[in-house]
Every structure is written in C-alpha cells, then in structure tokens.
Write a structure and sequence with these properties.
5 helices, alpha/beta, 93 residues, globular, single chain, 44% helix
Length: 93
C-alpha cells in the first residue's frame, strides 16, 4: 500500500503504516522532502526518470525509489534499470 507522507499527519501516517503491517504487507511511504523523510522509511517520490534523480534521492537518505513509469516507457528497459540501479545507497544521518 502506498502512503503519501505529504497528505497525512504524522500520527495518521504512523497508524496507517502499522495497519498495513498488521495485514502482512509492507507499506511504501512516498516522500518529497527531508522533513517527510525524517518521519518515514523512505521510498522517494514516483516519477524518477534519470540517474540524477536517483542520486538526489540517495543524497536525501531514501531507502528506495519508484521508477516504474520511466522503465515502462524506456526504449531499452534493461539499460534504464542498469543506469538507475548503479547509484550507491547512502545511509541517513
């Protein structure tokens, strides 16, 4: 289940994430800023289309990025995956 940090108060985000976990699923929490990232296990916003976008997400400490749209429209999906996946992961704080 996708939860959007920007649309939810902190308590609501925590409550919904806990409810999703109780179902046996893992919540994906979309963030767009450092403040939102600080309160979530972060999956950076959808719409990432370039290595630079993945690097920006990594620099903010994102745990993952959503790239489905860019892969589904890429002329060479394998090359797109290789470019996006080659960004080193960085820890937060």
């Amino acid at each position: 289940m996708l939860l959007i940090a920007r649309a939810l108060a902190h308590e609501a985000l925590a409550d919904l994430a806990a409810a999703v976990l109780r179902t046996g699923m893992t919540p994906l929490i979309e963030v767009r800023s450092e403040a939102e990232l600080a309160r979530a296990v972060a999956v950076y916003e959808s719409g990432i289309t370039s290595r630079e976008g993945v690097e920006r997400a990594a620099s903010l400490g994102a745990d993952a990025v959503l790239v489905g749209s860019s892969l589904s429209t890429a002329a060479d999906p394998l090359a797109a995956v290789q470019a996006l996946a080659s960004v080193p992961r960085r820890g937060r704080g």
